[in-house]
Design a protein that fits this description.
- This protein has about 325 residues and is α/β, with parallel strands linked by helices.
- The protein has ten helices and twelve strands.
- An eight-stranded parallel sheet has the order 3-4-5-8-9-10-11-12, with helices on one face. It has a two-stranded antiparallel sheet with strand order 1-2. Strands 6-7 form a two-stranded antiparallel sheet.
- Helix 4 links the parallel strand 8 and strand 9 (about 150-155).
- Helix 1 (about 35-45) crosses helix 2.
Length: about 325
C-alpha cells in the first residue's frame, strides 16, 4: 500500500480514512481486546491518524482501551472523543446533557481515561434539546482556552444548530452517519458545513457492516449485537436492503473490488472534506478498507451506485429511536 493520503477537517489535518473504535468495546457483539489493540497498532502503521471513540462506548471502557493503545505515541494520532450521552457504569442511559458543568466534568473524566492532557477533536455526541447550543459550545470553548481540547465538533446536528454553534466558536468537524444507504446529509447538512468551512466525518460508512455483504440473515449477528434491534436489520427491511447490497456486489465485482471497498470509495469520492471512519476489530478488514483509497470511480460508477441507492432507498430507520437526531 502506498503512502496514506491526508485530508483536512477545517484547520485539522488527518488521514483520509480514520478508525472508529466503538465496536471494540460494545454494540457489535463480542470483541477481543488483544485483537482490538493489534488493529489500532496496524492502523497507525498504515498511516491512519484519526482514532474515534466516545465516553459512552463500553461504557467508559473504550476510552481506556484507546488510551492504552496509544501510550508512548500520543503525538502520532489525532484523538477524537465525545460527550453528551449520559450513562451509568452499568450501561443505563440517562439522557443527553450539554450544560456547562457537565461538559467540563465529562472532559476531565475522558482525559483521565485516555491518559492524556489534551483531546484533539472533542465532539458533542448528541445535541441537548434542553440546553442552548451557545452554552454547550461556550463551555467547549473554555476547554480550548485551557489547552485541554484543540478543536471542536458536533454530531448529528441540524444545519441551524451548526450555524449557531459556529458563531460561538469555530466548529472543525461535523460527524454524522453517511453512506450509500444513509444519504440524509445531502439534504442541507453537507451544504451548510461546506459554506462554513467545516469538515465532515462519516461514521458507519459501510452501513454498519451491511454494505460489506458479509451478512445474509439477522441470525448472523451475536445475541448482544445492537443491529438485532435496529429497524434496518429486521424482517422485511433486512430482505429489501439485502437486495440492494447484492446489486452493489455485482458492481464491485466489475471493478475487481469488494462491496465494502466500493461503498467506501463512494463516500471518499463525495469530497476531499469528508473523512470516513469505518470501524473494525480485525486487521485484515482494516487493510481492505484502506485499499479502498486506491479505487478510482468514474462518473459512470457514481451514477450506477446512486441508481441502486438513491436518497431514501434503504428500508427502515437508522435507529429504533430517532428522536435525538438532527436537532
Amino acid at each position: 500500500m502506498g503512502r496514506m493520503e491526508t485530508r483536512r477537517l477545517g484547520e485539522l489535518q488527518t488521514s483520509a480514512i480514520g478508525l472508529g473504535c466503538m465496536g471494540m468495546s460494545e454494540f457489535y457483539g463480542r470483541a477481543d481486546e488483544g485483537e482490538a489493540l493489534a488493529t489500532i497498532d496496524r492502523a497507525i502503521e498504515l498511516g491512519i491518524t484519526l482514532l474515534d471513540t466516545a465516553d459512552i462506548y463500553g461504557p467508559f471502557t473504550n476510552e481506556r482501551l484507546v488510551g492504552r493503545a496509544i501510550g508512548g505515541r500520543r503525538d502520532q494520532v489525532v484523538l477524537a472523543t465525545k460527550f453528551g450521552n449520559v450513562r451509568t457504569e452499568t450501561g443505563e442511559r440517562l439522557g443527553i446533557r450539554g450544560d456547562r458543568d457537565y461538559v467540563l466534568s465529562a472532559c476531565e473524566a475522558s482525559l483521565g481515561r485516555l491518559g492524556t492532557d489534551h483531546i484533539d477533536l472533542y465532539y458533542q455526541h448528541r445535541v441537548d434539546a434542553d440546553t442552548p447550543i451557545e452554552e454547550t459550545v461556550g463551555a467547549m470553548a473554555e476547554l480550548v482556552q485551557q489547552g485541554k481540547v484543540r478543536y471542536l465538533g458536533l454530531s448529528e446536528a441540524s444545519p441551524e444548530t451548526i450555524r449557531r454553534a459556529h458563531a460561538v466558536h469555530p466548529i472543525t468537524a461535523l460527524q454524522s452517519e453517511y453512506s450509500l444507504w444513509t444519504r440524509d446529509p445531502e439534504e442541507g447538512t453537507l451544504q451548510t458545513v461546506r459554506e462554513l468551512g467545516i469538515g465532515f466525518v462519516a461514521y458507519a460508512p459501510l452501513g454498519r457492516g451491511f454494505l460489506c455483504g458479509r451478512f445474509r440473515s439477522p441470525d448472523d449477528f451475536d445475541a448482544d449485537d445492537f443491529r438485532r434491534s435496529s429497524p434496518r436489520f429486521q424482517g422485511a427491511n433486512f430482505d429489501r436492503n439485502l437486495e440492494l447490497v447484492e446489486r452493489v456486489e455485482e458492481l464491485a465485482a466489475e471493478k475487481g473490488a469488494t462491496p465494502g471497498q466500493l461503498a467506501l470509495a463512494w463516500v471518499l469520492g463525495r469530497g476531499y472534506d469528508i473523512v470516513p471512519i469505518p470501524g473494525t476489530t480485525h486487521a485484515e478488514h482494516l487493510e481492505e478498507n484502506v485499499a479502498a483509497l486506491e479505487i478510482e470511480l468514474t462518473e459512470d460508477d457514481f451514477a450506477a451506485l446512486e441508481a441502486v441507492f438513491p436518497m431514501g432507498a434503504a428500508s427502515g430507520d437508522r435507529y429504533s429511536d430517532m428522536s435525538s437526531i438532527g436537532r
